[in-house]
Amino acid sequence: MTEAAPESERPEPLRPGPDHEDENEFGVSPELVNAVRDDLDDGRIGEVEAVVSDLHAADLADLVEQIGPEHRGALIDILRPQFDGEIFAYLSQSLREMVLDQLEPREIAAAVAELESDDAIDLIEDLDADQQREILENLPPETRALVEEGLTFPEYSAGRLMSRDLVSVPQFWTVGKTLDYLRTETDNLPEDFYDIFIVDPMHKVVGAIPLSRIMRQKRSVKVGDILTEDIRTITATTDQEEVAFLFRQYGLVSAPVVDGNGRLLGVITVDDVVDVIDEEAEDDLLKLSGVPDTDIYRAVLDTTRSRFTWLFINLLTAILASSVIALFEATIEQIVALAVLMPIVASMGGNAGTQTLTVTVRALAMRELSNTNAVRVVAKEALVGTINGTLFAVIIGLVAGFWFQDHLLGIVIASAMIINLFIAGLCGTLIPLGLARLKIDPAVASAVFLTTVTDVVGFFAFLGLAALILM
Amino acid sequence: MTEAAPESERPEPLRPGPDHEDENEFGVSPELVNAVRDDLDDGRIGEVEAVVSDLHAADLADLVEQIGPEHRGALIDILRPQFDGEIFAYLSQSLREMVLDQLEPREIAAAVAELESDDAIDLIEDLDADQQREILENLPPETRALVEEGLTFPEYSAGRLMSRDLVSVPQFWTVGKTLDYLRTETDNLPEDFYDIFIVDPMHKVVGAIPLSRIMRQKRSVKVGDILTEDIRTITATTDQEEVAFLFRQYGLVSAPVVDGNGRLLGVITVDDVVDVIDEEAEDDLLKLSGVPDTDIYRAVLDTTRSRFTWLFINLLTAILASSVIALFEATIEQIVALAVLMPIVASMGGNAGTQTLTVTVRALAMRELSNTNAVRVVAKEALVGTINGTLFAVIIGLVAGFWFQDHLLGIVIASAMIINLFIAGLCGTLIPLGLARLKIDPAVASAVFLTTVTDVVGFFAFLGLAALILM
C-alpha cells in the first residue's frame, strides 16, 4: 500500500470545507465583486465574461446588486447578449426595474421565454401595462397564453405562485406504465419534481405519490391503489400567506393547485414558498418601523419620499403630545424639574408598549393568537405592564426624589410610570387585535397609534398628577 | 348519458375549496378548539380521542397551544398513552417545557424513539443534563448513539439540523442496480427523500442525482456518468444561518452534510430550513424591539423578567437624556415653550433613525450589505436624513413660529431638526455596521444606542441653540 497522500494533495471537497475560516462560504465574496470592478475599469471584458459564465443566477443577481451604480451598466451590457431571465427572480425590486429599463423589450422577451411560467408571471406582474403588452407580444404563443392566464389570478394568490409544469397520470395506470411514461416523455416534463399527481377522468386530483415511494413499488401495482389521498390541495385563489402557512405547518415540499371544481391546474413547490416566508417576515419588520416596500438599492429621492409619509404622521402625533404639555405650561414654569423628568415616563411607556406590540403582531402573523386566547393574552400583557410599571416606579421614584430632593415629586413620577406601563401593555395588545379585526394590517398602523397613546398618557399622567399634588 | 349531478351531490374536493369563505382554510379552527374544550369540560373523553386521532402532529401542537392552561393538562393526559413525538417539533418553547414536565421520562423516551434523529436532537438539546441522561438511557441503543453523536456538533450547526437517514450509492453502480436497491431496501431507507448521493470508496460525496432525473435514465447507465457534480456540500460545523442562506440562494430541496474530510454524514432537507428561516427573521424583529426569546405562551413572571432588562437599559438612557435637559434648566425656566417643543425633535430623530436602522439590520441579515457597498449606503442614508430633515425643518419651523409667535424659536427648532435627522441617518447605519464588525449581533444592541444618540443630540441641539440664540 502507498502512503496516504499528504494533506495538501488530497482532493478538495466540492466546496470549501471547515478549514475555510471565512463566514461567507457560499455566495458572492467581496473579493469577487472587487475583482470584477477592476476588470470593468480596465476594460478586461473577456475576463468578466469568464467569471459570470460560471455563476448561478442567484449569484449573478447579487453581483449586479453589489457592484454599485458606476459599474452596473457595464456589467449588464456584458450579460445582455444572453441575459438569464432567472436573474430577475433574485434581484431586489428597485434594481429589477433599473435592469428592465436598460434592456430592449425583445431582449426581455427572450429572457422571459426561458423562464418557468411562475417566474415569468412574477416578473411581468410588476410592470406597467405598456411594458407588459410589449413583452407579451414578443413571447412564443404558448408561453404567452400561460402567462396571460396566470395574470388573471389575483395578486399574491396561489394561482400566481404555481408552476404549470407538473406530472399527472390517470388513476388506472400501473406503476410500470407511469415509470415508462417518465422515461419517454422527458422533454415535456419539468426538470425537477417531487410528487406525481393522480387524476380522475375529469382531471380532478384524487391523490399523490411521492417519487421516493413510487420507486419502491412493483411495476404491476395500480397507482390508484398506492396513492396518498390525504394531501393538501390548494385552490388557485388562495392567498400566498395561507399557502406559506400550509407548507410550514405540514412540512410540505410540493402541493397541487386546483380550480373551483377541484381540477388540477398547477403545482407549488417549496422554493417558491421560501421566498414568500422571507417576504412576509420582512414585511412585518419593515412595516413596524415605517419603511414598507423598500430595499437598500433604492435611489435617494425615492427613499426620501417613501420615508416622508411615516415621519409626517409621527410629526403630527408629536405635535399632539406637545399640545398636551402646553396644557401644563404654568405648572412647568414653576417646577422646571418636570420638564427634565417628563420624557422618561413617555419613553418607558413607548418602549414597553413596543415590546408587547411586536410580540402581538408576530403572534397574529403566525396564527398563534385568535379569538380563543385573545382575552387571556390582553390580560396577561396588562398584568406584565403593571408589574414592570411598579418595579420601575420604585426605581425612578427614588432617583427623582433624591435628584431633586423632593419625595412628593418621586411619588408623582412613580404613579405616572405605573399608569403608563399598564396602558402600554393594554394598548400594545388591543391596538393590533382591533386593527386585525377591522381587516387592517396590524403591522402597518399599530406603532403610530401606540406611541401616540403612550406619549399622550405619559405626559398627561405625569404633568396632571404634578399639577394636582405639587401645586 | 346521465345529467350532471346537482351541485350538492358532486364529490367534495379533498379539502375545502374556494366556496369556503373562512380564511382559516387549513389548521386548527377556533370552533374545533372550543368543541374540544366543551368535550373536556363534560368528560367526553372518547370524543376528544376521536378528534385528536385525525389530526396532524402540527395541528395537535396548535391545539395544545390554543386550548389554554385550564384544559391543557387534561388534553395531554388523553394524548400521553401514545404521545406523538413530532408534536414537540411544532410546540413553542415554553409549552414544550411544560409538556415535558408532565410526561414521565419513559413516555418521553418512547416518543423520542419514534422521531428522526434531527428532531430528537432538536428536542433533547434544550433539556438540562439530568433530563437528557434519563431520556437517553431509555432510548434504543441505535437511536441513542445517533442522538449522542448529533449532540457533539455545535448548537445551531448543520450537524444538529441534519438527518442521518439518507440514500447513498457507490459511483460504479448502474441505474438499474440503484433502482433495485431502492425497491428491496425499503425498510432501511428514509420515508421521503429527493436526491440520491453518490459516494466514492472513502465515502466522500462525489455528486448527486435528483430522483426525478434518475427515473428517466436507462437501467444500464452508470450513476457515476449522470451525476451532478456541481452540488452544494455543507460541512457539519457550518452555522444554520449559513445553511439557510444556501437553501434560499440556490432554491435547494436537500443538500448533503459532510465531515472535515468530505465524507458523507447526513442530509439537510428544506423543511428543516424553513423553520430556521422563520426563526431568524423572527429573531431580528423581536431583538430590535427588545423581546428576545419569547412567545405568547410564556408565564407572566417569566415574561415580566425577560422584558425588565431591556426596559432597565432604556431607563438609564432616558435618565441620561434627562440630564442633558437638566443642563438647560435656567433656559427652560425663562422660555417654557422649549419644554413644550423639545420632545418633537427627539421623537422625529428616533423615528427616522429606526427606519434607517431596520433597513440596515435586515440588509445585513440578508447579506445585501458588505464592505463593497457600506460607504455608499451610509452616505445615502445621511443624505436622505438631511433632505427629510430640511423638509420637516420648514414645516416645524413654521408651526412653532406661529404657535408661539416667535420666528427665532422657529429657526432654532428647524436647525435642531436638520441636525438630528442627519445624525439619525448616519448613526442608523454606522451603529449596526460597527456592531456587526465587532461580531455583536446588530439586531440586539443597535436600537438602544441609536435612541440614546437621537435623544441626547435632539435635546442638546434644540436647547443649546435656544440658549445661544434666544437668551
Automatic annotation (TrEMBL), chains A, B:
Region (Disordered): 1-27
Entry keyword set: CBS domain, Cell membrane, Magnesium, Membrane, Metal-binding, Transmembrane, Transmembrane helix, Transport
Transmembrane segments: 308-328, 334-361, 382-404, 410-435, 447-470
Gene3D superfamilies: CBS-domain, MgtE N-terminal domain-like, SLC41 divalent cation transporters, integral membrane domain
GO CC, alphabetical: plasma membrane
Domain spans labelled CBS: 227-285
The keyword Transmembrane helix is annotated on this UniProt entry: yes
Record membrane topology: Multi-pass membrane protein
Annotated GO MF terms: magnesium ion transmembrane transporter activity; metal ion binding
Pfam families: CBS (PF00571), MgtE (PF01769), MgtE_N (PF03448)
UniProt subcellular location: Cell membrane; Membrane
Biased segments, Basic and acidic residues type: 7-19
Sequence similarity: Belongs to the SLC41A transporter family.
Complex and partners: Homodimer.
Described purpose of this protein according to its UniProt entry: Acts as a magnesium transporter.
Protein name according to UniProt: Magnesium transporter MgtE
The organism of origin for this protein: Skermanella stibiiresistens SB22
